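Record 1 of the preview.
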Amino acid sequence: MSFVSRSGRKCMKENNGAKIYTIGHSNNSLEHLTKLLKENNVNVLLDVRSHPYSRFVPQFNRENLERESKQLGFEYKFAGDYLGGKPEDKSCYDGNEVNYDKIAEKDYYKKAIKRLIEISQETVTAILCSEENPHACHRHKLIAKTLLDMGVEVLHIRHNGKVEKAEIVDKQLPLF
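->
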């Protein structure tokens, strides 16, 4: 069953005009991330990492972002429990591999997506994960796919300052 049901189609029309940015911190400085957020007028940064900690880039640890965000000009919110790419919910896995389709069917995920859209309709919002390349990250493979299916515009902020419009291309079946 598709995530966008009959009621989702109605929702698609209501979400026209909604826009959500995504960004990955990678090994950059907090100052560089802040610069990119400001260039795109982001006011709310929603952290979608399941485990918001790193010994390699501690400036992006959850508590540090919570503490520093106001001074840097954005509001930080953590949503990795609901929108993370590695949920604790074991039913979202096939063996050791996470299955994004299973996550997308979970009520907690759907409610969090709805709340994300609501926040984005109030103010400019970006979701944060650790991967710089969105195509290697659940913020594109899972979250952007869901949002695009619902009629929300998704824009990936890259570290060089460029902004890419997210698109989901269905895999083409081989001819033979």
